[in-house]
């Protein structure tokens, strides 16, 4: 396409987008979206407990196949896991992670996680961050993507560094250390 014609089209399109709302359900006036961004660092431990009478993670479904007897590929787990200040189970709870993890690694064990990490203490009480990422659990140190947030973390982006603090390979119980950098 000729350059001037392209420019004319861009002009037509951007004028069309600037037209004031006519359907009564949207507006382009959202000043908080333009506020300067902050960087917040969070540090906590995530307790994923599948075992016992009071698990915080439960298997929702697993595939009906015999591909490999020891494979958990395809397993879906729903969680409501406590987040604590220290690694001990008795440490102060600062929030909880709710969502799903799906075992999505066919050859190398890997999870894909769809979780909302909500906080219940201090400045971020009632706010949460949305994490959607693959989680290569066989690597000692790994990174997850923070793709959004609620409350004080509205419009957040960021990343989390994870390190497995404890893992029981028999029942899958795990405690994971998180360092999260949130830009919001
Ligand atoms: C899968 O489901 C079918 C039909 O219900 C059943 O006959 C079969 O035994 C199941 N296979 C496994 C591996 O569970
Ligand atoms: C967190 O917020 C809830 C709801 O507003 C409130 O009931 C609770 O007391 C708050 N907790 C702390 C520790 O501030
Ligand atoms: C988190 O940050 C602290 C302080 O910098 C560091 O000691 C720790 O190893 C980090 N942990 C992870 C999982 O990145």
TrEMBL record:
Q: Does the keyword Thylakoid apply?
A: no
> Biological process GO terms, please?
phenylpropanoid biosynthetic process
Q: Where in the cell is it found?
A: Secreted, Extracellular space, Apoplast
* Alphabetized UniProt keyword annotations: Apoplast, Secreted, Signal
Q: Domain of life of the organism in this record?
A: Eukaryota
Q: Which family does it belong to?
A: Belongs to the plant dirigent protein family.
Gene3D superfamilies, from UniProt?
Answer: Allene oxide cyclase-like
Example of a GO cellular component annotation carried by this entry? apoplast
Q: Does the keyword Secreted apply?
A: yes
- Annotated Pfam families: Dirigent
Task: Name where it mostly resides.
Answer: secreted
The record's listing under InterPro entries reads:
Allene_oxi_cyc_Dirigent, Dirigent
State what protein this is by name.
Answer: Dirigent protein
Give the function comment from the record: Dirigent proteins impart stereoselectivity on the phenoxy radical-coupling reaction, yielding optically active lignans from two molecules of coniferyl alcohol in the biosynthesis of lignans, flavonolignans, and alkaloids and thus plays a central role in plant secondary metabolism.
């Amino acid at each position: 396409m000729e350059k001037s014609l392209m420019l004319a089209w861009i002009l037509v399109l951007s004028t069309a987008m600037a037209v004031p709302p006519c359907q009564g359900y949207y507006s382009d006036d959202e000043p908080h979206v333009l506020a300067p961004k902050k960087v917040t660092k969070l540090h906590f431990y995530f307790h994923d407990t599948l075992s016992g009478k009071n698990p915080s993670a439960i298997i929702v479904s697993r595939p009906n196949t015999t591909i490999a007897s020891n494979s958990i590929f395809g397993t879906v787990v729903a969680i409501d896991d406590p987040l604590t200040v220290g690694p001990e189970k008795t440490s102060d709870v600062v929030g909880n992670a709710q969502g799903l993890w799906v075992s999505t690694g066919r050859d190398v064990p890997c999870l894909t996680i769809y979780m909302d990490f909500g906080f219940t203490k201090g400045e971020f009480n009632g706010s949460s961050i949305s994490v959607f990422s693959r989680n290569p659990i066989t690597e000692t140190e790994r990174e997850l993507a923070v793709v959004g947030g609620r409350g004080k973390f509205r419009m957040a982006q960021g990343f989390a560094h994870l390190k497995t603090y404890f893992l029981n390979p028999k029942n899958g119980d795990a405690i994971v250390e998180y360092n999260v950098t949130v830009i919001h």
